[in-house]
Predict the structure.
Amino acid sequence: MAAQSLYEELARQLSAIGAVKRGLARILPPECPGGSAAVLTLLERHGEMRISRLAELLAVDMSVTSRHVAHVAQRGWIERSADPADKRSRILRLTPAGQAMIDELGLRTTEMFAHTLRDWSDDEVGQLNTMLARLRDSFGDCRAPHVRAPEAPEARASETRTPA
């Protein structure tokens, strides 16, 4: 098991990932904010789906998902059609314009990382990808029901004390 100081440093490093996320957000076209980009990316990765499934994958409330879907639909990046299995539901799918936006986002992301990590070797980038995937897998599905984290030692100690 790693020393506590290693876990503390890991927590510090992961909290700094916000700078990377902000860098990614800055390269998005103004007409495609982060929520819209996430909708398009998930539809490309998972194929057509109901909005309820999209909300699960985004791990956000249905009202937030609906706003993102409305935004991308208004721009013609997705189409909404009746679900043959349930006429009350809609199936979302990428349009050719949506695929073009995905392609542009991919190009922007690739160029940003290539520029920012220009002094990294391909092996180092590959190692980072492998380790980040392993870290994500260790945490499991973020959309799964919340599992309570172990309590801090001081919290357990306070429960065993008898009141004065």
